[in-house]
Specification:
The protein has five helices and five strands. It is α+β, with helices and mostly antiparallel strands. It has a domain of 84 residues: Alpha-Beta Plaits (2-Layer Sandwich). Strands 2-3-1-4-5 form a five-stranded antiparallel β-sheet, with helices on one face. α3 packs antiparallel against α4. It is elongated and about 90 Å long.
Amino acid sequence: MTEDSPKYRPLERFWPYADLPEQPTDDELAAIDPDLQEALFGSRPRPFSITLVFQRLDIPDFGRALDLARASAEFRETGTGANLRYRARFWSSEAAQLRDLFQIVGPSDSTEVLIDDRPVPYARELWLPLVWFLLPR
């Protein structure tokens, strides 16, 4: 061992690592997949919901569709570029807004209809028409 003092003294902190909080933020918790959220925190009681997941569409009313989606109970954008998806959740009391948005984005085959955040068989053909019965005439 040499008696010369070292030319480089490392710092006592782990510099290349980000200083992350120990607990997730509310935005991070909201972005968790519903199945993972249920496994981590248990099931939380919430009202029946229908979620529309759609991508950017080249239609004239798409701006109105985004406005309707942003006015929903919960709205989230996921992905980037070609994988960008818009996710709008509606409660059963918002059947009119759900119908208005579905009339715009529903004709696209890429639009998904989720019942309580899960893909359900015949969601378009059965569940949505049942919700339309909630609309006052």
